[in-house]
Write a structure and sequence with these properties.
The structure holds two protein chains of two kinds. By secondary structure, chain A is an alpha/beta fold. Chain A is built from nine helices and ten strands. Chain A has two domains: 218 residues, Rossmann fold (3-Layer(aba) Sandwich); 50 residues, no CATH class. Chain B is an alpha/beta fold. Chain B folds into five domains: 93 residues, no CATH class; 158 residues, Rossmann fold; 71 residues, Sandwich (Immunoglobulin-like), CATH 2.60.40; 163 residues, 3-Layer(aba) Sandwich (Rossmann fold), CATH 3.40.50; 68 residues. In chain B, helix 4 runs antiparallel to helix 5. Chain B is elongated and about 130 Å long. Classes of the chains: A alpha/beta, B alpha/beta. At the A-B interface, strand 8, strand 9 and helix 8 of A face strand 2 and helix 2 of B. Strand 8 of chain A pairs parallel with strand 2 of chain B, so a sheet runs across the interface.
């Protein structure tokens, strides 16, 4: 993982933090304002005392003036869980560097940022189903554990994003942040799975990673294109017209994903696998308000 | 419109493999990519994913199918009906006489005639044939019964005009046998009308259509030019004739051996002529040349040549016991330097040896005239005397010309048996009396009777006969010192000592006439000008004889076309009516195929 993220880059990541646009609902206390009232110093509201309430939260000044018991309510501050979903199918092995390499670099960087801010990080690998899952870990020292987990992944197998995301949604704590790193090139689609993730009330970021040759194919002539996920063959005579049609279709595919995400309150970003991790994290992810 | 060979349309099936090549998918290279999802979706719109692909419109495919369609259509030989006057057999007689070189029609009458014939060739319908005859002094078949337009055009392009006359009668006689079986055949004569008379052929069994080339044109010609040697040197005479319809004036110049000698003006009314003479020309002059200045329609007759001296005189040795008639006749023969002896003391220096009543043991290396030779084998079988009947002349024209033997009587003559290569000049019903022939490389003449046993020496024909025989035996040429018409053949008589004979033409080109001996005659005398015959012998100076070839033809110089050709039409030319014939369109379609293929190549190069 050291080779993925340079020390210089890591120092720059120290200045960043995840931008949680929703109230979080974490299992343990943390630095995020929680959806529930809690024991932080930030005042939230008053309510009448009920038997069983904590005496320590009774506002005695109000009782002195009104002779009625009111409890002072404060925002609870809880930790945020960043769930990283990585598509590890064979198609993620395309490109140089591969799409999966960039996905791992992004995941590693986000995990580093999150764990440095007392947030918790969970990682899932996806192929035809949820293949491997690292439950949420917290603490800066967990960075190595996460990075080690990311370092063991390799592109292999077919893709079933809907099924994997459904399984992933069941393990997502909810009201956390979910980052899906995938090329979205799943024959059965991805929309159903993303909807299930969104149903957990998580803050969803979808990062589509495509290889340069998938964005603008360089092949010319007569080809038999073999799908890396299952060996399906497509015979194509690549002419200027065919290339133009492919570009149109690829742009339309990305536009559909963008529209889907925006329609459901998710953020979408499409990057090429040959873009540097620095550029992705420091520029593109900040633009999507994932980081601040 | 119609199709001569509808089966040719089957060639349209060639479009099927073309389409198959477009439908079948090409052999492809394999490449593993991340996902084919987007490719499948994109290709759904542009191509099918089967061993064959959806046939899509492409300009190359359209051009290929168009080429196949044109090719199949051309094989089917589409035609359109057109009126043609050239169906069946067409015989074209192309006037190649000198007058066809007149330039009143640009570039010349001959070229214009060829152009018109070329257009006629292009109009030949399928199945029709054309024969082209070049009409000169001797008609020449250029191409016979050919429907191949390329061959006809090639033969026509190779045709060249001559400086001779147009022998219409000979040309018609040449094609007449070919016309017997085809009453529909047409005869087209492309001529300016200046042809020999063909009325002697009588009524022709076919129709002749005259395609007139050229019209009335002004022309001034040197109609005659001659030179004789007088007491004060050579004397030249030239006659200038205006054959045009308008008065003409100009200058005539005389050149001696290439140097301008005199220049005189002339002025002639239409149809008039004038004679100019020059006396006292330089004694040593060998050739004279007369030229007219000023352009006219025909340049060939604006120049004439004459030869003053035909070469050294002929050395004749007469071996006789006494014959004053013969001696006198030989002395009267022009150019003869006579020596007389009574015994054979040597013949090495003589050009012609005349044996009168005697015969050598063997023929000498010289041309020989034997008079009443003894019986024996020289030069051919000579027998005893026999009685003589009614005389008649048989010999070549150069030997029997001007002879009138009606008053000549001969008592007896030697019985002669001639070989195949010998010719009788004078004969009676029993056999030859005078004969000529070839013995080895030398010429031999034999008078079989004793001149004293005949009244021939008293007849004016005697010196003429002797002159003709000596002229035939004299080394040099039959035309030495003379002016002959273009194309006329010239005999060459070898000087006995000559080992090599060379002809030098007016344009400087040369040709070896001998060896082998005897020298071959000169037949290509179509060039106008002075010809030189050079005979060489080891250790002796060359002997040169010259002759001139001039046009001197009123028929060719008169460029005004006649009203009609000089012939008697066999049937009305209207019998050769225009008929409807199919005009084959396949050459145009074949050209279209070529154009489409070139377009297809261009489109392919551009797209790639």
């Amino acid at each position: 993982m050291d080779s993925l993220l340079s020390p210089t880059f890591l120092r720059r990541l120290d200045a960043l933090d995840l931008l949680a646009r929703k109230l979080v609902a974490g299992p343990v206390g943390g630095a995020r304002r929680a959806v529930a009232n809690g024991a932080s110093l930030e005042f939230s509201d008053y309510r009448t005392y009920s038997p069983g309430d904590d005496y320590r939260r009774i506002d005695w000044n109000v009782y002195a003036r009104l002779e009625r018991l009111f409890l002072r309510l404060f925002h609870a501050e809880e930790s945020l869980t960043l769930s990283l979903f990585l598509d590890c199918s064979s198609s993620m092995g395309a490109g140089a560097p591969t799409k999966l390499q960039l996905a791992c670099q992004i995941a590693a960087a986000l995990a580093y940022i999150a764990l440095g801010s007392t947030d918790r990080v969970a990682v899932a690998f996806s192929r035809q189903r949820l293949d491997a899952y690292l439950p949420a870990v917290g603490g800066r020292s967990s960075v190595w554990k996460v990075w080690d987990f990311l370092g063991r992944v390799s592109p292999d197998g077919a893709t079933d994003l809907n099924r994997s995301l459904e399984q992933f949604a069941l393990r997502t704590p909810g009201r956390g942040m979910v980052v899906v790193l995938s090329d979205l090139l799943a024959p059965a689609g991805y929309q159903v799975g993303l909807k299930r993730v969104l149903a957990t009330d998580a803050q969803l970021y979808v990062v589509q990673i495509l290889a340069p040759e998938e964005i603008d194919p360089d092949a010319v002539g007569d080809w038999e294109l073999v799908d890396s996920e299952g060996g399906a063959v497509v015979s194509v005579s690549v002419s200027a017209a065919v290339r133009e049609e492919y570009r149109r279709r690829r742009a339309s595919f990305t536009d559909e994903a963008t529209a889907f995400c925006h329609r459901h309150g998710a953020q979408f970003l499409c990057v090429s696998s040959d873009v540097s991790i620095e550029d992705v994290v420091l520029r593109l992810l900040r633009r999507t308000r994932l980081l601040e | 419109m119609g199709l001569l060979d509808p089966a040719g349309l089957l060639a349209g099936l060639l479009a099927l493999p073309i389409l198959a090549l477009w439908v079948l998918r090409p052999r492809r290279r394999r490449r593993v990519i991340g996902s084919t999802l987007l490719w499948r979706q994109a290709l759904d719109n542009v191509q099918a994913s089967h061993p064959w692909q959806r046939l899509r419109w492409h300009v190359l495919l359209a051009l290929q199918l168009a080429a196949i369609a044109l090719f199949a259509l051309s094989l089917a030989r589409p035609f359109r009906l057109m009126a043609s006057d050239l169906s069946g057999q067409t015989f074209v007689l192309l006037d190649a006489s000198a007058s066809m070189q007149a330039t009143d029609v640009k570039p010349s009458r001959f070229s214009a005639a060829k152009q018109q014939i070329g257009q006629a060739i292009d109009r030949i319908p399928p199945g029709a044939q054309m024969t082209i005859v070049l009409m000169a002094d001797e008609p020449r078949l250029v191409v016979a019964r050919s429907g191949d337009k390329g061959a006809l055009h090639a033969a026509l392009d190779a045709a060249r005009p001559t400086n001779g006359n147009a022998n219409l009668a000979a040309a018609l006689s040449l094609i007449a046998p070919l016309l017997v079986d085809d009453p529909r055949a047409r005869v087209l004569v492309y001529s300016d009308g200046g042809t020999d008379d063909a009325t002697r052929l009588g009524q022709l069994p076919f129709a002749v259509t005259w395609v007139r080339v050229g019209g009335p044109a002004d022309n001034v010609a040197i109609a005659a030019f001659a030179v004789t040697v007088g007491d004060n040197g050579p004397v030249a005479l030239a006659r200038v004739a205006n054959d045009g319809a308008h008065a003409a004036s100009g200058q005539i110049g005389l050149w001696t051996d290439g140097r301008l000698y005199d220049l005189r003006a002339y002025s002639l009314a239409a149809g008039a002529s004038v004679a100019e003479t020059w006396d006292g020309l330089p004694a040593g002059a060998q050739t004279l040349e007369a030229r007219l200045s000023g352009p006219d329609a025909l340049a060939l007759d604006d120049r004439a040549d004459a030869v003053v001296s035909s070469g050294p005189s002929t050395r004749v040795l007469l071996l006789t016991t006494g014959n004053p008639f013969l001696e006198q006749a030989l002395k009267l023969t022009p150019g003869v330097r006579l020596s007389v002896a009574d015994h054979d003391s040597g013949t090495a220096s003589a050009d012609v040896v005349v044996y009168d009543g005697v015969a050598p043991a063997a023929l000498p290396a010289a041309n020989v005239l034997l008079i009443h030779p003894p019986a024996g084998k020289l030069p051919w079988s000579i027998g005893a005397d026999r009685p003589v009947g009614l005389l008649r002349t048989l010999g070549p024209s150069s030997l029997d010309r001007f002879l009138d033997l009606s008053q000549v009587h001969v008592r007896t003559t030697r019985q002669m048996t001639l070989p195949a290569d010998a010719d009788a000049v004078i004969a009676d019903p029993a056999g030859p009396l005078v004969a000529v022939g070839q013995a080895a490389r030398d010429r031999v003449g034999v008078i079989g009777f004793d001149l004293h046993q005949s009244d021939l020496p008293l007849d004016p024909s005697f010196p003429v006969l002797i002159s003709n025989l000596i002229g035939w035996l004299t080394p040099g040429s039959s035309a030495a010192g003379q002016s002959i018409a273009p194309g006329a053949p010239v005999d060459v008589v070898a000087w006995p000592a000559a080992t090599r004979i060379v002809l030098v033409r007016p344009d400087g080109s040369s040709d070896t006439l001998a060896p082998p001996f005897p020298a071959r005659p000169i037949v290509d005398t179509d060039q106008l000008g002075v010809y030189r015959i050079v005979q060489s012998a080891p250790g002796q100076p060359d002997r040169v004889s010259q002759f001139a070839v001039n046009l001197f033809s009123a028929q060719e110089s008169d460029l005004t076309p006649p009203v009609a050709l000089p012939l008697i039409q066999g049937r009305s030319t209207s019998s050769a009516v225009s008929t409807t014939v199919p005009d084959d369109l396949w050459p145009w379609l074949a050209g279209g195929v070529l154009v489409v293929l070139l377009l297809e190549w261009w489109a392919y190069r551009r797209s790639s």
